[in-house]
Amino acid sequence: MFHIESDSTQPKAEFYQSLAEQLRALLAGERDLICNAAQFSAFIMQTLPQLNWAGFYFARGEELILGPYVGKVACTRIPFSRGVCGKAARTGLTQRVDDVHAVPDHIACDAASNAELVVPVITAKRVVAVFDIDSPSKHRFDQEDQHGIEQLVSIWQEATDFSWQI
What we know:
The protein is of the alpha+beta class. It is 34% helix and 25% strand.
């Protein structure tokens, strides 16, 4: 069994560096997309405080389809044209939202969510997925969190085989 250590009271740079090292060890030797996406979602949910959802949506045409996640039942399909996840998929840029209720086309899959961070996964010059984390706390994610999560998504992406998904 893999043991995860998480001390969110340490400085954020050190916290995310520790998570990066643990994530590399967790994913070592496994390349399967679904397995790694499930492990990564659980890892993030277990290590980051103040989250109520963490998971993936995979691109299929011009919409996102629900993938492995940890949290309450979620939206199954999100068009690229709507919401925070759709904007990340459409633009290929990370979306950090302090208050999702201020976003006119926000898709409320869980009414308890107040802040959101969505990182696009780009392979072969196109968005193949987005990694989405939600928090019940407004202003939960800052620039350091964004940078840390982007690095963790990059580690996950490097450890994962996308050949059948592209």
